[in-house]
Write a structure and sequence with these properties.
Layout: H1 12-27, H2 34-41, H3 45-51, H4 55-78, H5 84-99, H6 111-118, H7 124-147, H8 152-176, H9 180-195
């Protein structure tokens, strides 16, 4: 006899999001059709439209899921951080963790930025990506405000500097297909933090 719940298929929405995440990251948003996603998820096309109003809705759900996935990596790193300096580095480590995932066609950089590059100006998905990047910079700024009490302008400027460093490293890492640039950026961030 099977244990309760064993052998049950996961909900269609979950399978669709996982399939979309694999295909959007590996092949791009525009190049990935609904038929490809439903076939990989093992669901009927109607299941997609029962869970998402459109492909654009699925793309937004994918972007939200990528954001939550990154936050989970960051929180796991932050749980082991000792103080605000290590909190800043936890942001870099979360990006490095993301780069280390076993992607089907290798690491291609930030999945959020890759998707945003394909979306037209004004698309809601671009707003999701922008909010993610702003939150990353805000998290860095919060740690720096603790590290630099009474120096809010310096904390904000340093947070912007570090977020640019991180984004540039992710872009290069994506082009080169590995996370080495992110590790290098972390070393540069460490040196900068040692000077503040």
């Amino acid at each position: 006899m099977r244990a309760a719940g064993s052998g049950r298929r996961r909900p269609a929405r979950e399978r669709l999001l996982e399939a979309a995440a694999r295909r959007f990251y590996a092949d791009g948003v525009a190049a990935t059709g609904i038929d490809t996603i439903t076939a990989e998820a093992g669901v009927a096309k109607m299941s997609l439209y029962n869970n998402f109003s459109s492909k654009a809705d699925l793309v937004r759900a994918y972007l939200d899921a990528r954001h939550e996935e990154w936050l989970g990596l960051y929180r796991a790193r932050l749980a082991h951080a000792d103080g605000p300096r290590e909190g800043v580095l936890a942001v870099f480590d979360a990006y490095a963790d993301h780069a280390a995932f076993a992607y089907e066609n290798g690491f291609r950089g930030c999945g959020l930025l890759n998707a945003a590059a394909e979306l037209p100006a004004g698309d809601e998905g671009r707003a999701v990506v922008r909010a993610h990047k702003e939150e990353v910079e805000r998290l860095v700024a919060e740690h720096l405000e603790q590290l630099l009490p009474g120096r809010p302008d310096e904390a904000r400027a340093t947070a912007e500097h570090l977020s640019f460093l991180l984004e540039g490293a992710m872009a290069r890492a994506g082009l080169e297909g590995d996370g080495e640039r992110v590790q290098h950026a972390r070393s540069m961030a460490t040196a900068l933090l040692d000077r503040v």
